[in-house]
Amino acid sequence: MVRRLPEYLMIWVPLLLSAAHLISFSIWTIWISFTPSTLVPVTGWVGLRNYNSVLASRNWQIAFDNLLLFGIAFVLLSLITGLVLAILLDQRIRGENVLRTIFLYPLAVSFVVTGTVWSWLLNPGIGIEKLVHDLGWSSFHFDWLVNRDMAIWTIVIAAIWQSSGFAMALFLAGLRSVDTDIIRAAQIDGAGPIRTYWRVILPTLWPITITVVVVQLQFAISAFDLVRALTNGGPGIATQLPALVVYDLMFQRSQLGRGAAAAVLMLLILLAVLLPYAAWRYVQRRQAAHA
Amino acid sequence: MAALSIRALSKRYANLEVLKGIDLDIESGEFTVLVGPSGCGKSTLLNIVAGLDRASDGTIEIGGRVVNDVPPKDRDIAMVFQSYALYPSMTVRQNITFGMECRHVAKAEQEKALANVAKLLQIEPLLGRKPSQLSGGQRQRVAMGRALVRDPLLFLFDEPLSNLDAKLRVEMRMEIKRLHQRIGATIVYVTHDQIEAMTMATRIAVMHRGVVQQFADPDTVYRYPANLFVARFMGSPPMNSMPARLEANAGGPVAVIGAGRPDEVRIHLQDYDAATSYVGREVVLGIRPECIAEGDRVFSAATGAPVIVTAPVELVEPTGAETIVLLRLGGEPAQARISPDIRPTPGGTASFALDTRRICLFDPETERLIA
Amino acid sequence: MAALSIRALSKRYANLEVLKGIDLDIESGEFTVLVGPSGCGKSTLLNIVAGLDRASDGTIEIGGRVVNDVPPKDRDIAMVFQSYALYPSMTVRQNITFGMECRHVAKAEQEKALANVAKLLQIEPLLGRKPSQLSGGQRQRVAMGRALVRDPLLFLFDEPLSNLDAKLRVEMRMEIKRLHQRIGATIVYVTHDQIEAMTMATRIAVMHRGVVQQFADPDTVYRYPANLFVARFMGSPPMNSMPARLEANAGGPVAVIGAGRPDEVRIHLQDYDAATSYVGREVVLGIRPECIAEGDRVFSAATGAPVIVTAPVELVEPTGAETIVLLRLGGEPAQARISPDIRPTPGGTASFALDTRRICLFDPETERLIA
Amino acid sequence: MRRGVMSSDGRPPMRDRSFAPSRILIYLVVTLFAAAYLAPLVVVVLNSVRTNEEIAQGSMIGWPQHMAWRNYLTAWSGFCIAETCAGIRPYMLNSALITIPATIFSTLLGAVAGYAVSLWRFRGDNWIYGIVTLGLFLPQQMRLLPWTIVLRDIGLINTLWGLVLIHTIQGLSFTVLFCRNYYIAIPHELIRTARIDGAGFFRIFWRIILPLSSPILIVTVIWQFTHIWNEFLYGVTFTTGQQQPVTAALIALSAAVADIPQHGVQSAAVIIAALPTLLIYLFGGRYFVRGLTAGAVK
Amino acid sequence: QGAVKPRLTAISQWSAGSDGAAITALGKKFEEKGGIWQHSPVPGFTTEMMNKLRAQIIAGDPPACSQLKGPEIAAWSKIAPTVDLDAVVAAAGYEKVVAPDLAKLHKPGGKWIALPLQIYSTNMLFLSKRAMDKAKADKPPVTWADFNDLAEKMKTAGVTFPVANGGTRADDGQKFEASLAGISPTAYRAAAMNLDKKALEGPEIKAAFAQMRKITNWMDPNVGAQPYAINLKRFVDGDMGMLIMGGWAQGVLRNAGFKLDDFVIAPGPSDNGKPVFLLNADAFIFWQRKEPDLQAGQMLMAQLVMDPAIQTMYSQITGSIPVRTDVDLSGEGWSDGQRRTAAALKDAVASNQAVLSLAHNMAQENGLTAAMIDVFTEYAKNKTITPDQAVTRLAEAVEGSR
Ligand SMILES: Nc1ncnc2c1ncn2[C@@H]1O[C@H](COP(=O)(O)OP(=O)(O)OP(=O)(O)O)[C@@H](O)[C@H]1O
Ligand SMILES: Nc1ncnc2c1ncn2[C@@H]1O[C@H](COP(=O)(O)OP(=O)(O)OP(=O)(O)O)[C@@H](O)[C@H]1O
Ligand SMILES: [Mg+2]
Ligand SMILES: [Mg+2]
């Protein structure tokens, strides 16, 4: 036992620190969500009051609706974008390395910068719309950023720009690891490129797809910096998202208890996404074990 | 009619010439086996025939039509891969019908063809399963089914049995052979297992370094290997080869192994007319291990008495069904296959009978069979 | 002294009993081969001996010391894996000396041991290379070197040759055998290649479903298989087995195959005393394919004349060195190995000689050898 | 083991022999995508050499009238954050001082833990591994205050080491996940042989596993480096004045709400600040894709 | 004292621009007096600054003084001990020169714990000279009716957007508070400052929302979340007409290179003709420290902040007006706008029309303010919300975050 102490320390200390901080922080937040804390954490018990007021607030309701829309639209579109890019790059095209770098580099950029730059580009007064107007096409209209109904889509655009490279990378790797013989078999069977992709190659990618969906969903749910820099929840409160609401309540509005309640609600949303995934993984592993 | 004609086919990858002027004519209904060591170009040749790779030079005709520029799906071929290459996301049923679906075959017809093949291969109970739920042998059978359902001009098999264990391999080998006899298809079959080659082929093409070394029926390949490479490649343990001198003699030439040594071995060559021109020169003498047996063996159908020699024994390996003995003939090492219940002592000497009817002589320069 | 003693060893994984009370005593200097079909527990047993897995029950002694609780590195063993498991990031030299480095052997001593081993295995020119720059055979040799350099009480080999091609396998087989003879090490060797087992072992342990079916020298295993499983597992093609009736007769019992049929085959059992108690009962008769040969074959050292039968031929498979014939004896299917130049016609009949000295009888209930 | 996932051989000819029109279409679409992905970068680069006046009088998108290279000088060492007029240079250094150790620690510890979880197995490993990877999903806003309390209690508040600690521990979620998924594909025989050879946990790690780990280490290093480098919230909350990371300096430049925006200098600063991460992707991108496959698709 | 060298640790969000310049100048003065100035700017939103402050308070290491304003002073003073400044304030005779409403905010428990530094009015009206020329107007509007007339005139005269604007939350808040305060300072006091339930649902609120809708209709809808400063050029060029903004816009305009005669500054519209002053004051709160040098630093800082010369210097840099009502603005270095602002403040104080800005967190604690601004900003961006609905929503928002 003593002989193996260093290795136990090396294994357990980091893992335990990591696990412990996650568990204790979560418990702490849950506790705070039941207290009347405002500026700083205080003890006390207010039952579900914080939850009720968060759930009743327009901010949260809009944020929740937005999350549904944003989550679904962003995940689907970035999945499709990533897949399309991967398939295009898979065609043995010239300059693949350069293109791959181009699609990946947004990952290197901070969300704040992404949000700021896209807010320039998408702003009709100073960005693309103005450019097109100055070029002479004055009826061109692209004002999503300041349009209540469309502003959420600007976040979708910026988020896709930033993270579809990740999906692309995973899909590309997946495409490249498909057994060549299978593709050859399909050719001999008489399948054209489209049918080959659709029927033979893509169905083998769905474990990757699940990974991509989970990672992107996690991104969608915790999207914060990007939104703050791009729309800051506006126009009005049209692009509120739960992460924004949590931060706002906790730190801007000094309503720590409510913020914690919102955070706990966010965690519940996360669990709603993760539990089915975990269950799926479990079933997968069970099946693998039986095969 | 030639089902497949390959003329002056070559294939280069950058600076590497993988196939060098291959010529092959395969008749309809033939079972041709391509054998050769790893990397000799077997798969490349098959892929070019299938249209999955392009030839650098030469022409390919399938059923009398030049197909160099015809895409794989229009070549009327079916192919079975070593890895089976079953579509992992489709059921067995879908795997088999996918090709028909691509060719827009009517549903009813698909069903009929599927039912036939499934019955033939006895995979009816598996139709609803995914490939991952099948055993190796079952997968192999499904891969066969996918090819069989097409009824093509030409079947291409790329080492279809090499992923199976020994027992299953023997079974599937017989099954494929029976299948060939039943449907009379034209088959080109790649393997590097010589037993498979010998037992299944109507003709064997032995390849080495991108060149077809010999293309003949199995007996000819085994009995009269075109050169030393073929001689050594076919058969396990391989044919023994040793330098020998041809001397003139009354009843035809005599091959002398270890000439001048006290234990020199003299072999009268019977019916080996071509040998006369080599009299007085060095040759390479090839003798198969099964032609060296224990001293009291009577080789069946032998017309004359075997040559009996006494030779030093170096190593004895009983395999149960026979005993492999490493001995020295005129100082040259050779392997013998003797009866399982005879176990000479390593280090001592023993008497061996040589079946001299099956001896091959090779030119030491060109390594070609002297014939 | 027993180099390795295994007593009542069992291993359970959750609800699966992989090893069921294994007992083995292996003498110092022995070459023990573990054979058995895939999944029978060979690797599990080896891993437990190596200390990489824990036994659920039973004890293991190495060199007289109970090692159940000794970590692998202190058991004084060396192990070679099927995958070789060479350290990919180290050179050959480092791969071989890594173990000594771990045991803090002095540099000079390391060098000496390395030089010895490298010379023995002829890998001196490879010492500076990485495993990825080696061929299969070379890798195998390095893996051996890593084990040899330790000079341990016990060598464990887990299918060390199964990743090599046929030719290399034969060569390496001989090399390992020579090595064993030279250094006289105690070796436990796992394989599922019976030729390897037969030719290398001083004793073979045949395993099936977590139980040792037979533990004996190769000849005994081949000649007197303890039960039908062993009989069928060892040998390729496997031993023919068919139901037969024992009838009393003057010169000892007679086994009748297909009794009552016009083509019944009657075999006088010589020297098979144990058979008498089964007279009048059904048994399973086992006869090896090489004991069925063409009609004019003289089995060497045979004391009596062979039984000659005329039997229908179903399938003929010439392999070059011999011809495998599927025939029917008294209606029961059987395989025969006959001379390569004899090719009976499938569908017709031919005459076969049976070597009756080597017949085995099995109890149909217990499937055990009647002995 | 990871045989040529990205190698280009083995592609069937189907994909490179398609008839010309479809090739042209493919190139067209790829080019359009590439243009869209590059647009923001181009805009920032152009703006970085435009003067503030030029931007204020025109729009954010435009060709520079005269190259205002000064912007880079100002951004690098000129502009003021309150009384300090040193540009973003000192803050770049701070970011490096936080990012480099945190990246190294989280990668190394993650590698050891991933190695332990995947190749050694111990009681409860799956549980703890599951919890640790859940950390990927815990929103960081939620952790800000607890970290404050923790840093206070261990006396690391307002120090760079406090941030290193935070990023190391939080980074473990990612590094452990990816390292484990990578190591799980390493043959167990390697470990077994080494154990018989007499090597212990650490020797096996250092001598055998680590040399095999470069693909996944590249992934975790790239990932950790960019995330920590780009982090802002903890960076401003847990540092003071001269210790702040470069993201804080960038924000200081852009969030002067009551002033004329300094878009030119801001753009130049953004580019300088993003250079380390951009370069990392530029040079490491290819390995990133390769290692990602190994690490993520399990 | 004497032996220790005064030292001050301070945090603020003033990191750049004129704010940065002003605090830097203040630091210089502090150092001239022999102190050690350790200012730590926290860039970003106010939230980040407060996060930082909170973190330091939780860590038991608050700065000697920090930027904080309005009712937050009272709120934060409850979570950590503050310095009693009564003695220094009394010594400087400061209390009588500070507007009473303002003074109250800085002595929540009856004792001075924080000191205001500068004052802005958030409802100043900036008029573009060129736009006025286009509309042939020469006088700034006094009432909302005047304002609306002028806007219409500008619109017809070809000014694309009669109202220049930004798109931030504070911007939208300012539009409302300017409207309401201009319509009725009394109602503003009751509703915005005292959260009187009845006043919150009163007719003035509805009228204010109606006025705000008019204003937003004249604004450029494309501004998005950009700050108002992005439009300064269009404003000066006469493409936009009027800007309702805090006094700080003057400094920004001048920093951007525009001249004083490019624009006119006037008090925001007030229907009763007398200026309404929406007070926004920046302040420092002083946290209790044990270190003698910090304590000395705090005293020094307090003296400096109250010093008329320092206040003059500070306001001249930022464009604000001094907290002290006794500073003479007639001299060099003051702009007309500042003078007019100071005069307006005096008038407003006299007529009890100086009220605390809601949009800039002077009237309510942050939570309430943010909840109310939610309503304003949504109303500004969503023209389908009727003033009636807005009134209801505002009342609900107040109720919901009490
Ligand atoms: N795309 C390629 N580029 C370059 N060389 C190649 C390529 N494909 C195959 N080769 C080379 O061509 C030679 C023949 O390969 P091929 O696959 O046909 O061998 P094979 O006879 O099928 O071997 P095996 O029995 O191992 O399957 C090999 O040396 C191989 O390295
Ligand atoms: N960790 C494990 N958990 C559960 N079952 C296991 C585990 N390891 C091995 N087994 C099972 O134990 C049995 C024996 O496995 P083992 O690897 O010893 O077989 P083997 O004889 O070496 O087979 P092969 O010839 O294929 O190598 C198999 O059925 C296997 O599925
Ligand atoms: Mg091949
Ligand atoms: Mg095994």
Defining key terms:
heteropentamer; A: mainly alpha; MetI-like fold; 0% strand; E: alpha/beta; six-stranded mixed sheet; binds magnesium ion
Q: How does the SSE layout of this entry go?
A:
The complex is a heteropentamer, with one copy of chain A (291 residues), two copies of chain B (371 residues), one copy of chain D (298 residues) and one copy of chain E (402 residues).
Chain A: H1 5-32, H2 49-56, H3 58-89, H4 96-104, H5 111-122, H6 128-134, H7 151-176, H8 180-189, H9 193-201, H10 206-222, H11 225-230, H12 242-252, H13 256-290
Helix pairs in contact in A: 1-13, 2-13, 3-7, 3-10, 5-7, 7-10, 8-9, 10-13, 12-13
Chain B: E1 2-13, E2 16-27, E3 31-35, H1 42-50, E4 57-62, E5 65-66, E6 77-80, H2 92-102, H3 107-121, H4 136-148, E7 154-158, H5 166-183, E8 187-190, H6 194-200, E9 203-208, E10 211-216, H7 218-223, H8 228-233, E11 240-247, E12 254-257, E13 265-268, E14 282-287, E15 292-294, E16 307-318, E17 323-329, E18 332-338, E19 349-354, E20 360-362
Parallel strand pairs in B: 3-8, 3-9, 6-7, 7-8
Antiparallel strand pairs in B: 1-2, 1-4, 4-5, 9-10, 11-12, 11-14, 12-13, 14-20, 15-19, 16-17, 16-19, 17-18
Helix pairs in contact in B: 2-3, 2-4, 3-4
Chain D: H1 20-48, H2 52-57, H3 70-78, H4 89-120, H5 125-134, H6 141-154, H7 160-183, H8 188-197, H9 201-209, H10 214-230, H11 233-237, H12 246-254, H13 263-296
Helix pairs in contact in D: 1-13, 3-13, 4-7, 4-10, 4-12, 5-7, 7-10, 7-13, 10-13, 12-13
Residues 13, 16, 18, 36, 38-44, 192 of chain B line the site of one adenosine-5'-triphosphate (ATP).
Q: How would you characterize the overall build of this protein?
A:
Chain A: It is found in: Cell membrane. Chain A: It holds the Pfam family BPD_transp_1. The complex is a heteropentamer, with one copy of chain A (291 residues), two copies of chain B (371 residues), one copy of chain D (298 residues) and one copy of chain E (402 residues). Chain A is mainly α and 291 residues long. Helices cover 72% and strands 0% of the residues of chain A. Chain D has 298 residues and is mostly helical. Chain D is built from 13 helices and no strands. Chain D has helices spanning 20-48, 52-57, 70-78, 89-120, 125-134, 141-154, 160-183, 188-197, 201-209, 214-230, 233-237, 246-254, 263-296. Chain D is globular and about 75 Å long. Chain E has 18 helices and ten strands. In chain E, strands 1, 2, 3, 4, 9 and 10 form a six-stranded mixed beta sheet that branches. The chains are: A mainly alpha (291), B alpha+beta (371), D mainly alpha (298), E alpha/beta (402). Chains in contact: A-B, A-D, A-E, B-C, B-D, C-D, D-E. One magnesium ion (MG) binds at residues 42-43 of chain B. One magnesium ion binds at residues 42-43 of chain C.
